[in-house]
Amino acid sequence: MTAELWHLGRAAATILCMFIFHVASSDSRAQARISGEMGPSLAALQKLRYLDLSRNDFYGASIPLFMGSLENLRYLNLSSSSLSGRIPSQLGNLSNLRYLDVGGSDNYLDVVDLAWLSRLSLLSYLDLSNANLSPVQDWFHMELHLSHCVWHGPIPEELGNMTSLQVIDFDYNDLVGLISSNLRNLCHLEELYLDYNNFNVNIGEFLNQLPRCSWSTIQVLSLANMITGTVPLEVGALSNLTELDLSYNKLNGVLMKEHFSSLFKLEYLELGGNSLKIDIEQNWVPPFGLKSIDLGSCLVGPRFPEWIRWQADVYSLCLRNANLDDVIPEWFWVTFFRTKFLDASGNKLHGSLPANLQHMSVRMLYLGSNMLIGQIPGLPVNISYLNLSSNSFSGSLPSKLKAPLLEQLLLANNQITGTIPSSICQLTELRRLELSGNNLTGDVMQCWMESDSNSSVSNTNSAGQFGSVMVSLDLSNNDLSGEFPKFLQSAKNLVFLDLSFNRFFGILPKWLPEKIPLLQILRVRSNMFSGHIPKNLTDLESLYHLDIARNNISGSIPWSLSSLKAMRVISRKRLGYDFEENDLEVSDFEESVPVITKGQTRDYTFGIYGLVVNLDFSCNSLTGQIPEEIKLLIGLTNLNLSSNQLIGKIPIQIGALKQLESLDLSYNKLSGEIPSGLSALTSLSYLNLSYNNLSGMIPSGPQLQALDNQIDIYIGNPGLCGYPLSKNCSASTTDAEPSVDHEDVDHISYLYLGMGIGFVVGLWVVFCTMLLKRSWTIAYFQIIDKLYDEVYVRVAITWARLMKKTHDDAV
Q1: How high is the pLDDT of residue 773?
Q2: Could you point out which of 6, 111, 516, 634 has its C-alpha 20 to 30 Å from the C-alpha of 206?
Q3: Hey, is 560 helix, strand or coil?
């Protein structure tokens, strides 16, 4: 079989473009396995990126050294192929390698040196299972870094032979079980990183498995994991510890000062994301000087922890959701004036902030979701992120917002009044602005006018303009007015825009698709916008949430709805904006976003907002028919066209919208029958077709019959019949106008037409005959006179008899 590999390699070497070489054996596809040795001709495949030789039989051959010359390889799979010998260090030359698998029960490979792994900076998958690590001696400066290797299984016992090992980094793998007791010889261990694995063990048992001889040498213990139980006091015996990271575990119980009294060198204390209670006396003075403190989600309060007062060198402090119910002490702003990151959001902190925070060095200040009052303070000069949302701040915004580096300004859901100051136009680095849920008034046009006075219109998309890097803008639920904000013509990166519940007027601009091409969410409901829906609005290919409800929009719904490509795919997380690359994460969007769906307002967090695909044109003055093209928006979860003046029939293929959860077409002038396809909408949980001119039988189906308030769905349509209405369809045919076949209608029309023509012809025959012969005319009128006399005599006699009878009865 060696010759076979040689010929394959030679033929493939002539191809200059990227290609894949896959000769793996699979029981479902082939009975035979390639055997022998790997021929040197494989070295000619210098363009090779994918090589899979797994599940073959190489008769105990070693991995050839030339494998390290295939520098374009990204995928190399040699698993379960009866290989033996040393893993060559030449594999470290494969700098583009992402996937390496040399494991499996059929391989018997020795790991003598793993220093070459440090050169594989792009490696994301490594499988060394069943490899013999015992020959490994001190290497790579006595450090073992195997993080992000998708490594599954227990920590191998062979590590115990690496007696001089100082650093073990197994972060972001899938390691399970306890640390092997065979590691007791690792007396020089200084740093142990086991973050984000799958140990799921008790922390007491875990610490007992650490080599006792290393308790006086270990400096870093990082176990952000699935560790359970209560933290034992023995953790305080790690006297040389500088970093203790137990964050995001399942720890509970109480931490006291005794846990920390001997940790004189501790600099990093990370306990966030647990259910720990911090029960430390207020007057305790710690023996250490911390640089980073994370007590997020721990039970720290209700009083503000006094012991952190002595940690003046902290650059990061997190007290988020720490059950604090207190006033922020004055010393806080003095102690932490050099701190870069401060987070005390999600508590019950009350009182006011200092009038001016410009002396502080903080870059990120998060105090949202508290009970703070007073005015918004003067901002720190170097601040980048400020979150004061969901408090009770009042008064006006600072007239001078001197924070040129500010990227996020979150002041939503407060009681701020007045106008938006013109100084906000100087915040050209602003990526996210949230002022919703306040009492702001006035126009927001001054940013455009100020920038326009200094530059030509053609340069409005250039860097340095207010809004040019903006990703999210929320001005909803205020009393703002004016036309659609023109400064948004500079916002080419905007993804989220909410102007709803204000008093904006004018038309929706036609420049939206050109100037804001990345827009995904547009909410302008409950304003005073007028005019037609711009036809090119549907050119916003990323738009999956469009809400223009409760305005004065008129005209027809554009047939080009099918251009909304983001609504033409099945719902999924749609935030296409690269938040990580732009230093803005979905997790930063902690505020909920309201969506009117299923007849009520529901709040969705931004993280799952992409699952809600919404089209809401309700409560306007739209006319015409519902476009048939709406059937192409198969990703829709909410469609609301209610309270307009739409006519015609419900599109017969509306049943194609399989993801639809809420459909409201009420209060229109729709006619015809209800499409039977509605019964196929298995996700539908809300339907409203009331107050239209619909007729015929209501379609049946388990999904429709499972809806709540079924009569309310169809009320106001007198022509409808069948369940759940009391009007029986078979009985309604006699009460209402008979249902006539079109062919019968045509026969009746021809019958009446023939009768009319016959009557006219017969009448003219009689008159023409009398005109031609005078004697016939005289005879005709004599007959008429005679008939008249007889009728007159009979009526007179009958009338006389009735009068006499009436008189006799009265006597």
Answers
A1: 57
A2: 111
A3: helix
Cis previous bond, 88, omega within 30: no
Number of other residues whose CB lies within 10 A of the CB of residue 664 = 22
Structure tokens at 789: 């006399």
CA 324, CA 304: separation in Å to the nearest integer?
A: 6
Structural domain boundaries in the chain: 1-136, 460-735
pLDDT digit string (tens) for 356-378? 999 899 999 999 999 999 999 99
Residue 110: its H or E element: strand 108-110
- The CATH architecture assigned to 1-136 reads Alpha-Beta Horseshoe (3.80)
The answer to whether the 1-136 and 460-735 domains have the same CATH topology is yes
Burial of 626 (0-12, 13-18, 19+ CB in 10 A): buried
Q: Which CATH number fits domain 460-735: 3.40.50.720, 3.80.10.10, 2.120.10.30, 3.10.20.30?
A: 3.80.10.10
Determine the Cα–Cα distance for residues 55 and 1; give it in Å rounded to an integer.
15
φ/ψ of 464, rounded to 5, equals: 95, -10
Reply yes or no on whether the pLDDT at 606 is more than 60: no
φ and ψ of 181, to 5 deg: -65, -15
Place of tokens 């640089």: 291
Stated as kind and residue range, the H or E segment containing 761 is helix 742-772
Closest to 116 measured CA to CA, from 785, 136, 352: 136
pLDDT in tens, 623-633: 999 999 999 99
Instruction: Name the band, by pLDDT with cuts 50, 70 and 90, for residue 229.
Output: very high
d(CA 734, CA 227) in angstroms, rounded, equals 75
Please tell me which residue, 731 or 700, carries the higher pLDDT value. 700
Read off the tokens for 611: 């699952």
Give dist(CA 256, CA 776) in Å, integer: 132
Our measurement of the distance from residue 275's CA atom to the centroid of its chain's CA atoms, rounded to an integer in Å, reads 28
Size of the chain in residues: 811
